[in-house]
Inverse folding.
């Protein structure tokens, strides 16, 4: 690798990653004894999930109401996605490692196999080690992690330290027990159980997920993170995340996800709700790296996610950043309801679809308050036989005077068998607002490739470099460690797309 | 698959009010089959998300007052042209020139030449996929009149189709099918409101290197309802240019369906729409690039005030293999007061990698800085506003190749702005 050093201006990390590129890195599974609920979905399963989580009566009723509604709904098919009919009765809706039957009181009691799984994924759950500086170099930011394994939360780190600041960070099932008043007040207030087919399904069967509450005027002392791992076969993951950021508070939240390689499709239907009050700010970053299936489209996760942030009061601010590289099917539109006057929403997205992957993703910016601002930057990359669609809505309501939106969506095509599509909806119902939308579609610039190749890079390296440049605006919006990971992922996801 | 009950009922009600005229029977029968399979559009259809088609599909037309243009000259008055007039959808020989023009064969639907037996409804039928356009198929099945035009040389003069609106309850369906042979050229002018409710289809088949210019001034009748479809298919190196001016009108839905079938062809489609008060204007465009190195350009501008609504749905579909495509699309609106709305859905669907496609959309009020600049140079406020609006519309008007016609359209725009200064 010594000759790499001489190339000026080239990110060595990128090249090393490209050079050492393997296939999907997280495709192994953990052999662990699991407890499954019986296959299929009915009211008894909903009751079972609720009782496993020791939930109060009101939550069970809430779930059952959602289930009864879901039965009457039809799966939506407006997205540019083509996949075989999903048999909702051929799935496990609840799977938990046997060792979690008796809830461990601390991370020390957690099954070492589970901890090893996360260690292998590169997710540090051992906060002691981190605190001692063994694994983390001096000065590196610390991140509190809630690790979700199939249907249950395995453990949450740094709880004590967060509690000192008044921050609540725990699994949602724990929050239901420990902080019922908060959960009851906010759960379903952003994404109601009636919202859409997949959100309704999630409301009925969500098993775990994270809960965050940041008290007024508090800057969360560290970044919070949830790591989702699907391990069991034929098991859907339905996590629910609820973040409440009280007045004047701030939190940066990271989400990562992986799953083993399997040749059957697995369902993932999550809901993320964020409530942001006056002057508060939430940054939500996702690196979605579910197993995408093999190059022939065998296997992979079906990812149907509803994410929404409600800027409920004045000057609330939310920033969504997503790097979507995984999943066979992605159906995901993180949205911002800009209700409070002067509230702001931002959406930065990189969506990469390679081989047989299909992604239909974008955002909704609903401007309700005066002087609200939103910004959308979407970069879609298609390679192989993949289809990649940006779908978005910008809506300026009559009362949203003096609001602004700027949208830019760019698509890059690598190869002539893939597709890149843009479906924006723009609705302007007042005059004082300004809306701008731009979209471009192009292929990897020949001149740039030629330049890189003339400097001795091979074609794959060159493409990875050009693509990283194409994504730069979004990568810059990510927290630093995430940006590095995302940059590497971009290169890995495009593996095999050239030539 | 059968239609759901409400759609079947709406269709039965509409069909009950119609009878198909004689001639072109096979093509009309096939079109009726299409309508019966599709049903009529409904507000809940995605393609009608922003425009309620209820008044367009109702069994009868809603009354529309006949508009008095006062001293404004008829559109294209100063242009040397062949005029063909339809009054409330009925051919008016006394208001028309002889249907003879050097380089062109013109006949009416009732006396169709052989080529028209297969051409009539052919492009409309192709245009039904991937999006259904039932009102166009309904038109093919039941059009009461229209022209079949075959261009076999260089047309000596433009043809001007004049659509007069005289009866307050008229409900007209007209269908024109045009075939421009290899290397030939035609300019088609259209003007007038047509009827209280007017459903019109224009099919244009362009052979290689054929050229077609289309300039349309839709009538100023405030209460009229129009639904129009232009279906065009371009052979290699063909040129298609279309411009539409819409001022007033309760409801206008202008659809354009353009397909590139030969390489190196060009299609430009533009529109300028101005509405004050009860005005709903919808431009819906679908361009399919199915050949190599074709260029498409869409330029749509809208000026909206006092509750006027502007809609733009534009799609560029680039098929696999349509390399070197150059697709450009811009839709902009100027909202002059609080109540107006602009609803827009610009789409790209691309399956080829060596393409250059872009779309842009903006919406906003008149730029205060520009206004201030003009006023500081002594231009009165209203005049300054008009100047800025004209500048905003200029990009669309520039799409008209003929200078005299562009000047006629420009003068109409200016006159409209003068009348609607408040």
């Amino acid at each position: 690798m010594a000759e790499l050093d001489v190339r000026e201006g080239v990110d060595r990390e990128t090249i090393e990653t490209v050079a050492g590129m393997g296939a999907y890195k997280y495709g192994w599974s953990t052999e662990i004894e699991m407890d499954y609920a019986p296959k299929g979905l009915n009211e008894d399963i909903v009751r079972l999930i609720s009782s496993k989580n020791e939930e109060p009566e009101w939550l069970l009723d809430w779930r059952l109401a959602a289930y009864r509604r879901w039965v009457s709904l039809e799966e939506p098919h407006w997205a540019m996605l083509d996949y075989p009919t999903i048999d909702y009765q051929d799935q496990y809706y609840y799977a938990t490692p046997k060792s979690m039957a008796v809830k461990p009181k601390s991370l020390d009691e957690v099954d070492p196999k589970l901890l090893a799984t996360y260690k292998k994924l590169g997710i540090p759950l051992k906060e002691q080690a981190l605190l001692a500086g063994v694994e983390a170099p001096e000065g590196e930011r610390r991140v509190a992690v809630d690790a979700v394994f199939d249907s249950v939360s395995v453990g949450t780190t740094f709880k004590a330290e967060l509690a000192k600041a008044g921050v609540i960070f725990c699994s949602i099932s724990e929050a239901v027990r420990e902080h019922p008043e908060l959960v009851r007040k906010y759960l379903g207030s952003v994404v109601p159980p009636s919202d859409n087919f997949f959100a309704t399904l999630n409301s009925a069967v969500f098993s775990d997920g994270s809960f965050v509450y940041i008290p007024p005027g508090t800057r969360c002392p560290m970044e919070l993170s949830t790591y989702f791992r699907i391990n069991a076969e034929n098991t859907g993951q339905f996590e629910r995340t609820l973040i409440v950021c009280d007045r004047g508070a701030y939190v940066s939240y990271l989400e990562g996800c992986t799953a083993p390689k399997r040749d059957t499709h697995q369902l993932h239907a999550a809901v993320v709700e964020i409530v942001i009050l006056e002057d508060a700010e939430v940054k939500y970053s996702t690196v979605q790296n579910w197993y995408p299936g093999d190059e022939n489209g065998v296997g992979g996760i079906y990812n149907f996610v509803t994410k929404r942030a409600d800027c409920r009061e004045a000057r609330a601010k939310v920033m969504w950043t997503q790097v979507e590289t995984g999943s066979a099917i992605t159906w995901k539109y993180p949205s911002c309801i800009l209700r409070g006057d002067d509230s702001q929403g931002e959406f930065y997205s990189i969506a990469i679809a390679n081989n047989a992957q299909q992604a239909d993703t974008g955002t909704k910016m609903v401007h309700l308050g005066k002087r609200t601002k939103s910004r959308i930057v979407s970069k879609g990359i298609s390679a192989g036989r993949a289809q990649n669609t940006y779908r978005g809505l910008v809506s300026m309501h009559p009362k949203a005077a003096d609001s602004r939106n700027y949208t830019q969506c760019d698509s890059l095509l690598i190869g002539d068998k893939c597709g890149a599509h843009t479906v924006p909806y723009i609705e302007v119902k007042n005059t004082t607002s300004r809306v701008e939308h731009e979209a471009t579609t192009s292929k990897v610039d020949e001149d740039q490739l030629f330049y890189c190749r003339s400097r001795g890079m091979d074609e794959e390296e060159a493409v990875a470099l050009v693509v990283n440049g194409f994504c730069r605006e979004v990568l810059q919006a990510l927290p630093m460690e995430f940006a590095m990971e995302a940059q590497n992922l971009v290169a890995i996801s495009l593996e095999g797309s050239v030539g | 698959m059968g239609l759901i009950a409400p759609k079947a009922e709406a269709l039965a009600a509409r069909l009950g009010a119609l009878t198909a005229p004689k001639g072109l029977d096979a093509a009309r029968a096939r079109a009726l089959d299409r309508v019966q399979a599709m049903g009529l559009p409904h507000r809940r259809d995605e393609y009608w998300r922003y425009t309620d088609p209820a008044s367009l599909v109702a069994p009868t037309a809603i009354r529309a007052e006949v508009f008095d243009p006062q001293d404004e000259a008829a559109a294209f008055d100063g242009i040397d042209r062949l005029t063909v007039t339809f009054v409330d959808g009925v051919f008016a020989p006394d208001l028309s020139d002889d249907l003879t023009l050097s380089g062109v064969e013109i006949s009416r639907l009732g006396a169709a030449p052989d080529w028209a037996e297969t051409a009539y409804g052919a492009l409309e039928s192709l245009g039904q996929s991937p999006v259904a356009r039932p009102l166009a198929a309904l038109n093919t099945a039941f059009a009461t009149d229209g022209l079949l035009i075959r261009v076999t040389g260089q047309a000596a003069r433009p043809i001007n189709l004049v659509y007069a609106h005289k009866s307050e309850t008229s409900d007209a369906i007209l269908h024109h099918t045009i075939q421009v042979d290899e290397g030939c050229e035609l300019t088609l002018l259209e003007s007038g409101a047509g009827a209280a409710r007017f459903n019109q289809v224009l099919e244009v088949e362009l052979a290689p290197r054929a050229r077609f210019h289309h300039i349309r001034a839709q009538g100023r009748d405030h209460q009229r309802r129009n639904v129009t479809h232009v279906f065009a298919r371009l052979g290699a190196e063909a040129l298609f240019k279309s411009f539409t001016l819409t001022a007033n009108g309760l409801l206008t839905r202008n659809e354009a369906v353009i397909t590139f079938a030969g390489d190196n062809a060009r299609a430009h489609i533009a529109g300028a729409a101005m509405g004050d008060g009860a005005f709903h204007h919808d431009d819906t465009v679908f361009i399919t690039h199915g050949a190599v190195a074709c260029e498409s350009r869409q330029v749509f501008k809208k000026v909206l005030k006092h509750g006027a609504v502007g809609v733009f749905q534009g799609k560029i579909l680039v098929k696999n293999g349509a390399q070197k495509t150059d697709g450009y699309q811009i839709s902009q609106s100027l909202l002059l007061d609080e109540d107006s709305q602009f609803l827009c859905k610009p789409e790209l669907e691309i399956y080829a990698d060596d393409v250059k496609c872009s779309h842009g959309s903006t919406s906003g009020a008149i730029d205060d800085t520009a206004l201030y600049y003009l006023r500081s140079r002594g231009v009165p406020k209203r005049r300054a506003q008009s100047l800025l609006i004209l500048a905003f519309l200029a990009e669309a008007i520039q799409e008209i190749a003929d200078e005299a016609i562009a000047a006629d359209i420009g003068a109409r725009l200016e006159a409209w702005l003068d009348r609607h200064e408040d």
